[in-house]
Amino acid sequence: MKQILLCSLLLASQITNAQSQMDQPGYYRIQLGEYELTALSDGTVPIHLHDILTNVSHQEIDSLTTLSYQTPTEEASVNAYLLKLNGKNILIDAGAAELYGPTLGHLPESLRKTGITPEQIDAILVTHIHTDHTGGLMLNGKMVFPNATIYISQPEVDFWMNEKNKTPRLARWFKEAADKVGPYLKAGKVKTFEYGDEVFPGITALDAHGHTPGHTFYALESKGAKMLFIGDMVHAASVQLPDPAVTINFDVDEKTAAIQRIKTFKDAAAKGYWLAADHISFPGIGHVRAQGKGYNWIPINYSTLGNGQ
Ligand SMILES: [Zn+2]
């Protein structure tokens, strides 16, 4: 059970109680070049870092979380991102729906608060096929986004849709892939791409394999603005920013995942572009700055003008 995030859930009663007291707005909007970008919250979920982080001691986890005024039981955000351009509504990732308990699955509700219904989503760019990124595609046996084309990298589809790749450790995700992505595949609604393809104007799909075999980053460049959507490159910001070599036990390939993280932080810090991360504290948008052997996270400035700077 160790590799299953679900094992890190706190008692449901505690969560329900906390959530009922803390309903949050769930979206944050900025302009990014020609695109209007809205970060959407699917919710938050407590994760026990001692149980899931790898290539790190409990002592290091304790000292790094303390430095961030956190504890080894962190509350991780699950974020998705809506991009609007020329009347098209493009979502990056789709949340968890019912798969991780009562504190997640709020993406459709967050979306509605922005004035868009799930039926109005034209495309979903998937970073990878995992519970909290593609779980939200289906709910109660129905497509949540019936009018959307789902974009997924060819290697990601090839891996998760081939039972020959299934091992006991990965079995759960193969079932979820079949349940949540399978119906869209059967309906001809999945469009695969190769790394390097421009999937929408100014949005390029990049090779970020490691966390999963077809994990994808999306680089958005528009009128001089640049943001890189990094999916699951970071799960525990308080630990993996200061020590990017730390991995997580649901990386399919931990070693390559660490290499991708180290390389990407270095590039983002050197070039100063935005990062958007599905599991960094909502809205998960910010910059990184090199510090010591690791990095600092500088979250986006809160703005009612919509520029975040
Ligand atoms: Zn994730």
Provide a quick synopsis of the model.
Helices cover 26% and strands 30% of the residues. With 309 residues, the chain is α+β, with helices and mostly antiparallel strands.
Coarse structural class: alpha+beta
Q: Can you list the ligands bound to this structure?
A: zinc ion
**Stretches with pLDDT under 50, minimum 5 residues:** 1-21
N-to-C SSE string, H for helix and E for strand: HEEHEHEEHEHEEEHHHEEEEEHEHEEE
> N-to-C terminal Cα separation, in Å?
42 Å
What's the CATH architecture name?
4-Layer Sandwich
Helix proportion range: 25-40%
Structure commentary:
It is a single chain. With 309 residues, this protein is of the alpha+beta class. It has one domain: Ribonuclease Z/Hydroxyacylglutathione hydrolase-like (Metallo-beta-lactamase, Chain A), CATH 3.60.15. 26% of the residues lie in helices and 30% in strands. A seven-stranded mixed beta sheet has the order 1-2-4-5-6-9-10. A seven-stranded mixed beta sheet has the order 11-12-13-14-16-17-18. A hairpin with a 2-residue loop joins strand 7 and strand 8. It is globular and about 50 Å long. It binds zinc ion (ZN). Zinc ion binds next to helix 5.
Provide the fold topology.
Blueprint: H1 12-21, E1 27-32, E2 35-48, H2 49-52, E3 53-54, H3 58-67, E4 73-85, E5 88-92, H4 107-113, E6 123-125, H5 131-134, E7 138-139, E8 142-143, E9 149-153, H6 154-160, H7 171-180, H8 182-186, E10 190-193, E11 198-200, E12 203-207, E13 216-222, E14 225-229, H9 237-240, E15 247-248, H10 254-271, E16 274-276, E17 285-291, E18 294-299
Parallel strand pairs: 5-6, 6-9, 9-10, 14-16
Antiparallel strand pairs: 1-2, 2-4, 3-15, 4-5, 7-8, 11-12, 12-13, 13-14, 16-17, 17-18
The structure holds zinc ion.
Signal peptide: 1-18
Keywords: Hydrolase, Metal-binding, Signal, Zinc
InterPro entries: MBL_superfamily_lactonases (IPR051013), Metallo-B-lactamas (IPR001279), RibonucZ/Hydroxyglut_hydro (IPR036866)
